[in-house]
Amino acid sequence: MNSKAFVAAVITATLIIAFAVIALLGYPARDDSGNNNISRYVFGNATVEDIEIIELESFPVQINVVAKGYLPDGCTRIHKIEKDRQGNRFLVMITTIRPADAVCTQVIVPFRETIPLDVHGLKAGSYTVSVNGVTGTFTLAVDNILDAGGPESRLNRSDNGSQVMLNRSQTMVIALEANPTTGYTWEIAEVNSSVLRQAGEIEFQPNSSLAGAGGVQSIRLYALAAGQTQLKLVYHRTFEKDVEPVGTFNIQVAVS
C-alpha cells in the first residue's frame, strides 16, 4: 500500500470511529434558532398517591403539604415543583426528568416531598390544595396576618407566675436568659393554641461577641382569640428525653 492509500485508510477509519461515537453519545438537537434543545431527556409528571397538609404551630400560620408517591424507575428524578394559587385553590405540579437513552433499573422508587405554601396574608376561610390531581383542604380560622391589637407586651423572668391580660391581636414578647451553645433552649410546653400562638422563630441575642457567650432568648406570641390559657415554657435540651427541665416559666394569660 502506498503512502497516499495508507493516509486515506486512516482518515476513513477515523471518520467511522467518530460517527460511531456520535451515534452512541448523541448531540443535543437544535431548533431553528440554533439553540440546543432538550430532546435527550424525557419529561413527565410524578405519580402522587397521597398528600398530607400540616399546619405548623405558629402565627402567622405556616402550611406545608407533604406529597408521597413513586418514580417509575431508577433513572427518573424529581425535576421541578411548581406552585400557583387561583383564589382559594392551590395548584401544585411535580414534574420528573430522565435521560432518554438511559438503561434503567425497572424498580419503582418512592419519594416524599415537603412543599411549603405561601399563605401569609390570606383571609380566613377554607382552601383546597391539588398536587398532581390529588386534593386536600385546610381552613384558616382567622385572617393570617399580624394586626396590631395594642402596644406590645414585654415580659421577663420577674413575671414568672403572674397573670397577663391581652387584647385580641396583641403581641407579647417573653425575654429569658439562655445559652443555646450549651444545647439548652426555651420551648413552649403548654398553651391553648386557639387562644395564644407563637409568632415566628425564637430569637437569640448574645451578651457579647465571644464564642459560647450566653444572652437572651425572646419568644413572641400572638393573641389569636378571646379566652384563657396557661402558658408554660421549659428550658431544656430538646434531644434529652425523660429529663426534667432546668428551668420553667409559667403565666396565666387572658385574652379579651
Summarize the structure.
With 256 residues, the chain is mostly beta strands.
Commentary on this structure:
By secondary structure, the protein is mostly beta strands. It has 2 domains: 41-140, no CATH class; 153-255, Sandwich (Immunoglobulin-like), CATH 2.60.40.2020. It is 9% helix and 49% strand. Strands 1, 4, 5, 7 and 8 form a 5-stranded mixed β-sheet that branches. Strands 9, 11, 13, 14 and 15 form a 5-stranded mixed β-sheet that branches. The protein has a 4-stranded mixed β-sheet with strand order 10-17-16-12, with no helix packed on it. Strand 7 and strand 8 form a beta hairpin.
Shape: globular
Order of helices and strands: HEEEEEEEEEEEEEEEEE
Distance between the termini: 105 Å
| Number of distinct beta strands | 17
CATH topology of the largest domain: Immunoglobulin-like
Structural class call reads mainly beta
Strand content: over 45%
Return the domain count. 2
* Low-confidence blocks of residues: 18-35
- Reading off the top of the CATH hierarchy, the class of the largest domain is best stated as Mainly Beta
| Mean pLDDT, all residues | 86
CATH architecture name of the largest domain: Sandwich
How would you classify the quaternary structure?
A: single chain
How much helical structure, as a percent, in the residues?
under 10%
Which features characterize this protein?
mainly beta; 17 strands; Immunoglobulin-like; 2 domains; single chain; five-stranded mixed beta sheet; 49% strand; 256 residues; 1 helix
